[in-house]
């Protein structure tokens, strides 16, 4: 990997100057997580070959700006977003996306149709969801890895139903201190 570089990242009318390490234009790993700020639009450059985007903080970016920007990354395979996340965001147009890590609070869990159909790995961290996210996530047909970390859910009960998670190979719950009851219905452990 080459040394650190400096760039301005624009998403709609928001920008943030970042130092980052990039092996190619297929991968961007941001070294710091800080909010982006609004500015007047400047020239826009898209990275059509970008496959990995890690550590982007997006709290103040509007739904339309975020969706507009992300939809241009047609080759994106791995995405890691930080900040306040909104369930109305639609990531389904990212057809190559197979790995998604969402870090930050959500009002509620994304609807199932907002996820890409090929999503194989999902990590939720510090989501503070009151509802059991597995009720929706178990319907993701391609999901093989699900990690719920550091208060991804603050509800007291979680259930893995027998008809869900048809491809799941790994379920990891870590630092889910509020969960008192974990129900695993018959047949679920045979899959994992």
Structural class, from secondary structure content?
A: mainly beta
* CATH class categorisation: Alpha Beta
What's the total number of strands? Answer: 12
Mean pLDDT, to the nearest integer, reads 76
Characteristic terms for this protein:
two-stranded parallel sheet, single chain, disordered N terminus, Leucine-rich repeat, LRR (right-handed beta-alpha superhelix), 31% strand, 3 helices, 192 residues
Characterize this entry briefly.
The protein has helices spanning 63-71, 134-137, 188-191, and strands at 5-11, 14-21, 27-30, 37-38, 52-57, 78-82, 99-103, 121-125, 145-149, 157-160, 170-174, 181-184. The protein is mostly beta strands and 192 residues long.
Plain-language structure description:
- This protein is mainly beta and 192 residues long.
- The protein has a single domain (8-191), classed as Leucine-rich repeat, LRR (right-handed beta-alpha superhelix), CATH 3.80.10.
- It contains 3 helices and 12 strands.
- It has helices at 63-71, 134-137, 188-191, and strands spanning 5-11, 14-21, 27-30, 37-38, 52-57, 78-82, 99-103, 121-125, 145-149, 157-160, 170-174, 181-184.
- The strands form 2 sheets. Strands 1, 2, 3, 4, 5, 6, 7, 8, 9 and 11 form a 10-stranded mixed sheet that branches. Strands 10-12 form a two-stranded parallel ribbon.
- 26% of the residues are buried.
- Residues 1-8, 10-23 and 36-43 have low confidence and may be disordered.
């Amino acid at each position: 990997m080459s040394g650190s570089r400096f760039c301005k990242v624009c998403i709609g009318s928001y920008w943030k100057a970042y130092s980052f390490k990039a092996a190619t234009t297929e991968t961007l790993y941001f070294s710091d997580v800080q909010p982006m700020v609004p500015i007047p639009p400047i020239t826009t450059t898209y990275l059509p070959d970008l496959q990995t985007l890690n550590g982007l903080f997006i709290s103040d970016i509007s739904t339309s700006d975020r969706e507009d920007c992300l939809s241009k990354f047609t080759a994106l395979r791995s995405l890691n977003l930080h900040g306040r996340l909104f369930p109305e965001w639609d990531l389904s147009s990212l057809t190559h996306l197979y790995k998604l890590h969402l870090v930050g609070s959500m009002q509620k869990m994304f609807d199932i149709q907002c996820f890409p159909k090929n999503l194989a790995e999902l990590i939720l961290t510090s989501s503070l969801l009151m509802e059991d996210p597995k009720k929706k996530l178990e319907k993701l047909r391609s999901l093989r890895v699900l990690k719920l970390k550091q208060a991804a859910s603050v509800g007291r009960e979680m259930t893995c139903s027998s008809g869900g998670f048809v491809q799941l190979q790994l379920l990891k719950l870590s630092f889910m201190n509020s969960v008192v009851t974990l129900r695993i219905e018959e047949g679920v452990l045979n899959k994992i």
